[in-house]
Batch of 2 targets.
Target 1
Amino acid sequence: MVGLERVFDVIRERGARAVGLQFPEGLMRYAIDISRLVGDLSGAEVFISGDSCFGACDMDLRLLEFVDVLFHFAHTPMGSVDPKVVFVEVSSKLSVVPVVKSAVSLFSGSVSRVGVVTTVQHLHTLGEVCWVLESSGLDPVVGVGDGCIAHPGQVLGCNFSTAAAECDEYLFVGSGRFHPIGVAIARRRRVVAADPYTGRAFVVDPEPIIRKRCGVVARALDTESFGIIVSSKPGQERLGLARELLGLVEEHGKRGVIMVMDVVKPDQFLGLGLDALVSTACPRIAVDDGESFGVPILTPVELEIVLGLREWEDFRLDEITCGR
Ligand code: SF4
């Protein structure tokens, strides 16, 4: 699953003596074996990052300071990154063809153009996915995203920009519901999900998340004080947006404070007396973990609704975007 040729090539080409390895949680079980292999075969001193690694947004900047190269596994660059960071993509070996064939019958009868999106580990299957759709008389469209997205058709939990506009419906290939629900809300279209791990294809239902977020917004309507969260993780840091939100809060006669942190955890807010939080960090914190914070935790979009600056009809999930 993990192709290490690139790691050895880069160490050799750069003459690296100190090497950092950063893995997402799902690959940590390979970390020790990979570090031994890299150290033994290259002769470099190898360090494994023990910090969180939630996505490409989450670079171990401390480790980066004392290594010649930092290999960041299983993600792709998100915007511009330090040249000492090398991304090592990891591809799934699972065939997606059977589940995509099952997905075809779930599109509406009138559908022609189908936008296709997937996560990084299945990107190499996009040709096969399009072939299955074309063989079924559909017109697949693989969109190019903004500067946060490295490859056409790739989707992140915080960026749906490759879901090409003007498609009738969308196909998401991958696991989990967050990405396809994000596309469904962003494009206001039906999304069929094809999960190669379970072999299940299904139409995603964004309504439960929309209802839940509506409840959070309703609870925050009478709020007087807001803690505006900024993550210092390189791909999540949106201090400029936080300052704008603070300005909006104060213009509306409410109080706000900006809080900067690396990992955002509920216990960091205990005892502060804030009525609500607004997260400019990873959009999934509010949506996936919001209930554990004890007070409503809004996205920037939702704060605009609370302040009366946006209609509920314009609700969408928060996205982290980058210019191209
Ligand atoms: S900000 Fe969140 S959704 Fe976006 S890449 Fe990072 S962990 Fe994933």
Target 2
Amino acid sequence: MNRDTICVHGNKKPIPDKSGAVAVPIYQTATFAHPAVGKSTGYDYTRSGNPTRDALESAVASLEGGADALAFASGMAAVTTLMELFAPNDHIIASDDLYGGTRRLFDAVSVKNGLQFTYVGGADELSDALTEHTRAVFIETPTNPMMNVVDIAQCAAFSRAHGLLLIVDNTFLTPYFQQPIALGADIVLHSGTKYLGGHNDTLAGLLVTKTTELAEKLRFIQKTTGAVLAPFDAFLVLRGIKTLALRVTRQQETAVKVAEWLQSQRKVARVYYPGLPEHPQYELSRRQASGFGGMLSFTVDSRETAERVLEAVQLIQYAESLGGVESLITYPMLQTHADVPEAERLRLGIDDKLLRLSVGIEDADDLIADLAQAFGG
Ligand SMILES: Cc1ncc(COP(=O)(O)O)c(C=O)c1O
């Protein structure tokens, strides 16, 4: 089935409801009655499984081309659960440009549990970071917020050769534009809060696995630690996915227009968008993904301009998060990446002149007009 169709229909996993409901019902129940002693309907307790969550999980597994998927209360709940696959002294090689919250989890919580991390700039640096304790490679592509594109197939070949799990955060491009499992990833991660949900109205996280064995391990950890997605939120993300194809296609079209307009602005020093032919990994991006997405970052000429833009935008909102129908602008230095050590932040380019824009589905000219008035001529 084509991805556009899967978005609308999920993978048509049968739900227990016999009413013919077109939308998957919200099974707002904590527990399920047993038909007889030792017998189960297949559902026992919502922490272990719920039909609304199941429908979402099977839709996302189909979209990503994975064997199975698990839905969590947030993207960070998904990463936290994922870290429980590892034991003290295990070592993980991660991209140095990651969502700040993931980096904070690794550096402030996972290290306390005995995990070790080495951060690298890209696939070429993996072998230098390898140790006898390395168990996984964790990447985001494009990276947040610098929009660097990491070669998934190269990371997969390295991971396979050394018996490591390759974990890819696919939040920015979504399975509509990029399918890491087909390129060799073992686990795909999503903040479902972003494009999958798509309406800035719920938090969610997803893990998609290449094999059922991995899913079983994670499901055991998930039901034990408990950070599952509630039925109502599962319904919201399922509803969001129905329009994923339309939204991301439109967001990308507008992002190209906005990126090109920004490039022509006197107060803009640099635009980071993989869909611009000047982007250093433009060709790689075209090779490994079928789209460039709706996220872009740019540096302006001064901190004053950055602050002015953030305070003067009217249609675009100065708010954290991304991927929703409303355009949002973020100051990574003070928001998403505030906890990354300053020297590291500056080395990556996350300084007081960097702004990140999540392009929504508004009219492109209206967005450009809003930015133009915010720059103040
Ligand atoms: C790329 C990426 N991964 C993971 C997360 C964490 O997701 P959540 O905010 O749903 O916990 C975010 C949040 O911004 C993100 O941008």
